[in-house]
Amino acid sequence: MSRPRLLLGVSLIWALASAILLWIARPHIAGLEMWDPDDYLRLQQVRDWLGGQGFFDVTQYRIDPPGGVPMHWSRIVDLPLAGLILLLQPLFGPWAAERIAVSAVPLVTLAGSLSAVALITARLADRRVALLAAMLAATAPLLLFHVLPLRIDHHGWQTMLGLLAIAACFDPRQGRGGVIAGIATALWLAISLEALPMAAAIALLLAARYLIWGEARRFGAFCAALGLATLALFAALHDRAGWTQPWCDAVSPGWFGPLLLSPLLAALSVRVTARSGLAPRLAGLLVAGGIGIALLAATAPACLAGPFGQLDPVVRHHWYQKVREGLPFWRQDPGDALVLILFPLVGIAGTLLARRHAADRAPDGTAARNWLAMLGLLLAAYAVSLLVQRAGGFAQGCALPGAAWLLGRARDRVGAWRYPAFRVIGSMAAIVALSPIGAMLAGGLLLAGFPRNVADASSETAACMAPCASLASLARLPRATILTGLDLTPRLLVETPHSYAASGHHRGRAAMRRVIDAFLGPPGTAHRLMRDRHMAYLLIDPAGHEALLYARAAPGGLMARLLKGEAPAWLEPVPLGTDRLRMWRRVD
Fold this sequence. Notes:
Elements: H1 3-29, H2 37-50, E1 59-60, E2 69-70, H3 75-124, H4 127-137, H5 141-145, H6 155-169, H7 174-191, H8 196-213, H9 216-237, H10 256-273, H11 278-299, H12 313-318, H13 334-361, H14 366-387, H15 392-415, H16 420-433, H17 436-447, H18 454-458, H19 472-476, E3 481-483, H20 489-495, E4 499-500, H21 509-520, H22 523-532, E5 537-540, H23 545-553, H24 558-563, E6 571-574, E7 582-586
């Protein structure tokens, strides 16, 4: 298959997948009914920037006013959204421009992810298998969820950049591949430190290839590009004040040791020791890594506990440990857990068989080495996804080359069958069996004999983020600060002019603790908070997951009393024209 035909095939797959995703999302686009609280807050961040807030200032001033909450998000993800809105506003007006932008930008990341998967597979196998990998990618549910129209949070960008970095690891031109992998990894980390485990896996893989197979140019270029790009991105995205804040949840001066100094020292070590024996080369890398970690421990020791190490214990228990996308597979719904578990196993099997097939042809050849390296990256991505659910899309992306190789071999076998009807049926069966859809079907069959716990299912009602209630009445009220649940706040910021006590974003942990205490404690706790922080209203979603969690955790607390209709005397009901939300005015 020629390169233009592969490009055309991937483009057609992207166009078809985009049309299907737009069809799925069509009821949500006009009303900006987004998929996740972070999508709403990302949109609000873009609106604030376009409305005059500084580029370097990512504080949400309408959360926990008057000081607001500094966000840990990067402007990198805001740039294409803001740019497209500004470009389209003169043509379509602000209402349509915003909706086009939040629908189109996720599909751009889908195009990037499909292209990266095809490039990885073409470099590991051939272009025919690469087209199969792109086709399978268009059926990967965890990958597709992060690129749905309106899904504008950073996960789609992370998946795309991670896959691009992996594709660069197999570039036949070592220097070019190392530079691209380093820049892609730096961008990935600048968007979110959630990339740190896989960035470390890529660095370790390239280091191993350097030490064992002598790929000095690729590894040296990767380290130099990673260090320099990290510095350049930080300088471009932060003002002078950013250089004095050692945040643990984002690239900051506290992380300069392992993310900037260590890569540059490693690049220097490669330059000096590339022609030496194994011991000097290994010692040079260990020294470079050790110096970076020592600098981290000296300048930001709290970061050694991870981005969430400083969370308040109450906030950790009632919020962080209830956010499903951050939990391991054993704390997921069984069906969701099997989606995480099963398809990467297909990719692992295919990668193992592809490596053996390549080794049989040329035991010391590049193809066998590349498949072995891909196996290491896939196993690392799989391990991360089993521990953190939101990494599942990336793990599925890493599994696609191996699954596509298996599918190519299966189609070759089926193609040799005598009867055309059997060949068609056999090909369709192979596609289903080796695709993410097949893994989902297998998971459904495994769970078919197990009754679902109806009580647990009913308690998992989502927060009111879709059109479960009109917020028009709330938006018409005079501007005020409102005490409400953490999950509700992002949508309320987008659709109303009010300010809110807190949201589910960890840099506002003090405000989060106050909100949790207010709903878990006796009414007097919330009363004091509302008076002290000048909050005029209290708003809840009685059927929401968060309200039910608080009521179960504290049967005598304020939330439980409100759900039972036992509002304290200092709260006066405010009609909103909907049964889904309940609101009260503080009257003293």
